[in-house]
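Exercise 7b. Backbone tokens:
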């Protein structure tokens, strides 16, 4: 397995539009999810860092596409969180258009890590993101975040229900639980990113 040092993840650029992103090189893994799904916490856990990605008590803080570099040929894109009601409609529309453009047309995009709060998975907006991934032919790794909020039995039940609900998905997919607080599931997430990288 490729030896990737996740502790060296480095922020390189933030762009409100796809056209402002760095030139495509190697592969990119996108992190997507609802505004309160724990995307920033997952990125920080991935990098074993407290403030690589900015977390906030106010959902929707990520309003740009933020690009991080793992090595010269592997980047991570933190996409704007979706579904936060207090964002102006015009801004929501811009996010939607840019994310659609990115997922359908970004040639270096290898896969999408889709974060969902384990207590409220597969919302209508999550399904829309999955539909977009299918439309773009993108592989999806679903992360049921905030797993520490549920007891073991409830986690297992949700995971089982999600496996059944996703059976008809027509792109390669996988699923896991994650607790950024307890660092449970971080190795599994890292392994998935390495798998995508090695598959190129």
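Sequence design result:
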């Amino acid at each position: 397995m490729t030896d990737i040092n996740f502790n060296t993840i480095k922020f390189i650029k933030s762009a409100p539009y796809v056209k402002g992103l760095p030139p495509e090189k190697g592969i990119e893994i996108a992190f997507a999810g609802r505004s309160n799904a724990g995307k920033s916490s997952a990125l920080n856990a991935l990098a074993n860092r407290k403030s690589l990605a900015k977390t906030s008590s106010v959902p929707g803080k990520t309003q740009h596409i933020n690009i991080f570099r793992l090595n010269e040929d592997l980047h991570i894109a933190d996409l704007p969180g979706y579904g936060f009601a207090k964002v102006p409609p015009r801004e929501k529309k811009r996010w939607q258009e840019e994310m659609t453009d990115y997922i359908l047309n970004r040639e270096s995009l290898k896969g999408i890590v889709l974060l969902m709060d384990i207590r409220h998975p597969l919302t209508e907006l999550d399904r829309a993101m999955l539909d977009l991934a299918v439309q773009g032919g993108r592989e999806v790794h679903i992360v049921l975040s905030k797993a520490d909020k549920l007891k073991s039995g409830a986690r297992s039940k949700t995971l089982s229900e999600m496996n059944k609900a996703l059976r008809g998905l027509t792109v390669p997919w996988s699923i896991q639980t994650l607790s950024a607080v307890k660092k449970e599931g971080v190795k599994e997430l890292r392994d998935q990113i390495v798998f995508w990288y090695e598959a190129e």
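Instructor comment: Residues 89-105 form the longest helix (17 residues). The radius of gyration is 16 Å.
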